[in-house]
Design a protein that fits this description.
The protein is an all-alpha fold and 167 residues long. It has one domain (5-162). The chain is 83% helix and 0% strand. It has five helices and no strands. The chain has helices spanning 5-35, 40-53, 57-77, 83-115, 124-162. Helix 1 (5-35) packs across helix 3 and helix 3 packs antiparallel against helix 4. It is elongated.
């Protein structure tokens, strides 16, 4: 049995989107829950460190690779004339808008604001004030991107199951 590039792209899209959705979900149920239990200074220092560390090839592969393979998968599914195309197209759009755009226009600017803070040079009141501002917005945006990533993953799995017999 020969495996086509179309099949490899579809499986790759499902795997990477699943990893992305899993990453965001795991963050929601572990890191966010843990950081709620620390003081404001520790929270901001931790988030600064994490935001710097996450800018790495492994994260970029999953985050952007999902979008790239979802789009390519949609193009490959276009000629199938079945539901797999529509599932892939919707998965691509949801991931693009709800995960990539929300991250780029929401979480990243908040991370940049946090990164610009010198925590050693501001008062404890300012630290507490910034935490309230940052944490509530960041967590809300994270919830949105998590939901969209999970739905995108589910749609890509649906595309896999509705794929024509040519898989």
């Amino acid at each position: 049995m020969e495996i086509s590039l179309k099949t490899i792209v579809l499986f790759g899209a499902v795997i990477l989107t699943g990893l992305s959705a899993g990453f965001f979900y795991a963050w929601s149920v572990s890191v966010i829950q843990g950081t709620k239990r620390v003081d404001a200074s520790t929270y901001l220092e931790t988030m600064q460190s994490v935001n710097r560390a996450i800018l790495n090839p492994a994260f970029f592969l999953i985050f952007f690779g999902s979008l790239i393979l979802l789009i390519i998968g949609s193009i490959y599914q276009f000629d199938t004339g079945n539901l797999s195309f529509w599932f892939m197209l919707m998965a691509s759009l949801l991931y693009l808008i709800g995960t990539v755009v929300v991250t780029g226009l929401g979480n990243v600017p908040l991370n940049n604001q946090l990164d610009a803070l010198n925590l050693n040079k501001i008062s404890s009141n300012k630290i507490l004030e910034f935490r309230k501002y940052y944490e509530s917005k960041w967590n809300r945006l994270h919830l949105i991107r998590t939901i969209f990533a999970v739905f995108s993953f589910l749609l890509s799995v649906a595309a896999l199951f509705t794929q024509s017999k040519n898989i």
